[in-house]
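# step 3/5: fold
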Amino acid sequence: MQSKMKTLICSWILLFAMSALAQSVSMEVGGGFRFESEADGRSTESQGLLRLGLGVDLSVFDLVGEITTFGNTDSGSALSISRRHFELMAWGMYHLWRRTVSSLQVGAGMGIFWEKVSSDIPGVTVQSASDVEIVLGGAVEYRHYFTQVISGSMKARAILNTNNSLAPVIDLLLAVGYLF
């Protein structure tokens, strides 16, 4: 777990060190849906998610660090199970084309995730956390600039957990950004 955390910390330090070379720095907040395969492999579950990102624009290439989180609760008459998912990712995004008011980007990302689970039976609460695991991703993003500093974007991503599953999860996101 410590080596995974060191790798992530080094990636984030590199991201923010690159900001000294940046044409601009941006912040984005957004939301969307994550589509995950169920254990049976035949059905898909969707989760609403929240995302916060910080990025640096290096002309034809952007570096973005982000945190994404979502959660759900399943309740019955005698049992309640809550799951909270946390994900930290660093993305490299290449501009396929860039115009005055819009751009199209493709990219790849790497990061970590972990989950916290809480089980409640009347009178007893059990909490646990998963191990930190590495994730890899690919993305396509369309961005429209409403003004020189405010933008909106649509993103589609495939994210793969390198330890457990060969089936990627799919994220569809909308975000609003601000350029500094």
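# step 4/5: annotate
The two ends are 35 Å apart (CA to CA).
# step 5/5: archive (pending)
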